[in-house]
Amino acid sequence: EVTVAESLLQHLHPFETTPSDSASPSDWKDCGDILLKLGDASSAIPYYERALKLSSRVQIGSTVLIAKKSDTILAAEVDCMEEGTADITFVESGEETVAKIKDIRLAVSLKESNLQVRVLLNLARCLLQIAEFDKYPLSRPSSYRQSAVLACSLAYTLLQQEQDEEDDVSTFHISSLLLRSKAQAGRAKWQASMNDVDQVLKYKPESKEGRKWRKELQGLIAQQDLANKKLVKGMCQWIKTATNEGDEDAVSENAVAAPKAIQKEKRTDSHSWPPNWITAVIVIFVAMW
Question: How far apart are CA 131 and CA 184, in angstroms?
């Protein structure tokens, strides 16, 4: 909680107190834009979500976007619909399958596809802003960034469907890739992040923002590599120290028990290299790595 001067307070906008049920997707987007410009990303999100919901209508013959994998979005055509499911054909491969309606991320609107792209990119910006401020619990910022990746992937795939030629690239292509690259970097998905920014520079080599972000990304990767090396070095030193202490204890016990061959054999086996607990630590560390 913080205390602020009364002069800094602002009245709510009319649409925040009396939302209109008859508002169009464009109206909902405009409301979200106003709140985003004010820095109120969390309040802007519901307006963008409403704009997408109203502009996304799944019907026979429509083009839909489906997440086949966590970060992979594919376009498909709806051939037939039944209760809760749709027969679809993927545009790129021609593969036919049955998909659940709830698994369809977005139905492309022929009239409002440009609006959908803008909404998705602004929604990604909101999610990335929230991820920067929300530090607890740690899983939530990662979820926000993952949702931002999804929004950018939807926008980029939608743009590709409308792309007439390979070199027909708009500023929205660049924005979707840069935003997704930053979201992936926040998730420590370094290779995916680098792939996106490299694609930006392939589209537009003179992009100042692209070159600046790539340089910053390289610095982040270098910092992470250094931190990993320090972690490995520290873990190795700790294991070595713990092992040496265990060997000294083993020598002392064996010297006392030397007259008894059977006991000596048991003790020697119990202190064999590597000790069981050391092996367990190494296995756990490798799994985390």
Answer: 12
Q: In sequence order, what are the residues at sequence separation of 6 or more whose Cβ sits closer than 8 angstroms to the Cβ of residue 30?
A: none
Structure tokens that stand for 64 in this block = 């839909």
Q: Other CB atoms closer than 10 Å to residue 152's CB: what's the count?
A: 30
Residue 89: strand pairing partners: 77, 96
109 near 57, Cβ under 8 Å?
yes
Q: Residue 150: CB partners within 8 Å, gap ≥ 6?
A: 67, 71, 73, 105
Contacts of 138 (CB under 8 A, 6+ apart): none
> What tens digit of pLDDT does each residue of 32-82 get?
999 999 999 999 999 999 999 999 999 999 999 998 766 689 999 999 999
> Residue for token digits 């016990």?
253
Q: Nearest to residue 71, comparing CAs of 149, 126, 131?
A: 149
Q: Which two tokens stand for residue 180?
A: 């997704």
The structure tokens listed for 89 are: 């054909």
Rg (CA), the chain: 28
User: What's the token pair of residue 65?
Assistant: 């976007």
- Residue 258's SS3 state is coil
Taking only the tens place, the pLDDT of each residue in 12-39 is 777 777 777 778 999 999 999 999 999 9
